[in-house]
Amino acid sequence: MKVLLIGSGGREHALAWKIAQSPLLDALYAAPGNPGIADHARLVELNVEDHAAVIAFAKEKAIDFVVIGPEAPLVAGLADDLRAAGIATFGPSKAAAQLEGSKGFTKDLCARYDIPTGAYQRFKSAEPAKDYVRAQGAPIVIKADGLAAGKGVTVAMTEAEALAAINDCFDGAFGAAGAEVVVEAFLDGEEASFFCLSDGKTALALATAQDHKRVGDGDTGPNTGGMGAYSPAPVMTATMVERTMKEIIEPTISGMAKDGNPFSGVFFAGLMITAKGPELIEYNVRFGDPECQVLMMRLKSDLLPILYATATGTLDRVDAEWRDEAALTVVLASKGYPGAYDKNTPIAHIPEASEEAKVFHAGTALKGDRLVATGGRVLNVTALGKTVTEAQAHAYALADRVEWENGFCRRDIGWQAVAREKA
Ligand code: AMP
Ligand code: GLY
User: Fold this and answer.
1) CB atoms within 10 A of CB 246
2) Is 380 touching ligand 2 by the criterion CB < 6 Å?
3) Is the dihedral of CA 213, 290, 207, 382 positive or negative?
4) For residues 412 and 217, is the Cβ–Cβ distance under 8 A?
5) Longest C-alpha distance within the chain, in Å?
6) From atom 4 of ligand 2, which residue's Cα is the shortest distance away?
7) pLDDT tens digits, 143-162
8) Which end of the chain has fewer CB within 10 Å, C or N?
9) Tens digit of each residue's pLDDT (9 = 90 or more) over 48-70
10) CA dihedral 230, 9, 14, 11 (to 10 degrees)
11) What are phi and psi of 140, to 5 degrees?
């Protein structure tokens, strides 16, 4: 099979690494890819926003299958256009990608099909939103409706904070994403991420993960795209997984199909495990980054036929086997992230991979033959272990061998699970 992978982050490096191990693979291309992905794929300079150019490249190289990593091309309808051109594609349609692209869309779906989630209202202007907040009281959650790079959510512990967040949204702090606002009840519990494939009819549960969004140790400081993650998530017991499938995923699949937007691709469900059980915080319609890195490390099965079955409506014929070990990934970021940081700082050394550990590239580039850091989140040091404690020790031992002066990482990724394992 000839495969084209779209994307350039750590998530796509992990996907490329795993796809490259498939005996079914004849050739792997990545657009635009990164220097880590270049170990497994031929990099192609394609403007992914130019769908006609992507289709022309796929036809020229006789690509059998396109795998789309990030959300932006999905929300822009790249999967629709590729499928219309007769090319099998992993990733939801533009209509189905609204599950991630519009928080209001997802909340309305939950209301229609009785999917457990926090009570909410949608608003197109500030005053009625503020009245609602005053009536409900704090804590309360304010969300810009559209894609805001993970920054559009304020968990307001006071009414004043909530009112300020509403002003921010309508004052344009998140651009068009904030033209509509969702105000949502605060859910109290432990968060977990759940990954599940669907071909529009069938579901295949993958695995669970927990991430660390805050930049600082002890989950302090500003939010980021994620400073580390581990899998599995201890809070997602077999019973919780079963309830999530039945109460959240299955009604989503049947509801989306009924509404004329059948979902094909991966559900990345952000869950709050409350006293009542699993409740949906949000859906993403692509693998998490860096959650994907720990999932790929734990996946024993060949990834390629699983993704292809998802794209071609034959998910009922495949299965996914997982290692019993835990996997943990530590993000090395540029000093200053998520604020301003220097670009093009040199990375002198990245340690070799082994069966049990691998450094994925997220924000790197080659300047001549020198590897430099170009992004905020730059490397994902990922390792397996019998327990999260062991995976954590392996990951930090490897991270300490990376030679990059301008890099930093949190030192406590996995702390909740480690504390549980000690207890
Ligand atoms: P989101 O971008 O929707 O994932 O929200 C970012 C973060 O805000 C989540 O990971 C949660 O930690 C928090 N959050 C979002 N919605 C709620 C809610 N209804 N109750 C409590 N925390 C929430
Ligand atoms: N790590 C969170 C995300 O990929 O959205």
Assistant:
1) 11
2) no
3) negative
4) yes
5) 60
6) 288
7) 888 777 667 889 999 999 99
8) C
9) 999 999 999 999 999 999 999 99
10) 50
11) -155, 160
Best of 100, 121, 140, 153 for a ligand 1 pocket test (most atoms within 8 Å of beta carbon): 153
Residue 113 CA to residue 339 CA, distance in Å, equals 40
What are the backbone angles phi and psi of residue 200, rounded to the nearest 5°?
105, -25
State if residue 270 touches ligand 1 by the CB under 6 angstroms criterion. yes
Q: 384: Cβ below 6 Å to ligand 1?
A: no
Contact status, residue 313 vs residue 377, Cβ threshold 8 Å:
no
C-alpha torsion sign, points 60, 63, 67, 69: negative
- Among 12, 193, 208, 289, say which to mutate for ligand 2: greatest number of ligand atoms within 8 Å of CB: 289
The token duo for 412 is: 């406590």
Residues 305-323: b if buried by 16+ CB within 10 A, e if exposed: bbbbbbbeeebeebebeee
Q: Tens digits of per-residue pLDDT, 195-215? A: 999 999 999 999 999 999 999
Distance, CA 381 to ligand 1 centroid (Å)?
A: 26
The model's pLDDT over 77-88, given as tens digits with 9 standing for 90+, comes to 999 999 999 999
Contact 181, 123 (CB under 8 A): yes
Structure tokens belonging to residue 127 = 């005053």
Please provide residue 141's backbone torsions phi and psi, each rounded to the nearest 5 degrees. -120, 130
Query: 140: Cβ below 6 Å to ligand 1?
Result: no
Q: Measure the CA–CA gap between 197 and 317, rounded to whole angstroms.
A: 13
Assess contact for 146 and 72: CB atoms under 8 A. Answer: no
Cα–chain center distance at 421: 26
CA angle 98, 101, 106 (to 5 degrees): 55
Whether this prediction's pTM lies above 0.90 is answered by yes
CA dihedral 16, 375, 69, 369 (to 10 degrees): -30
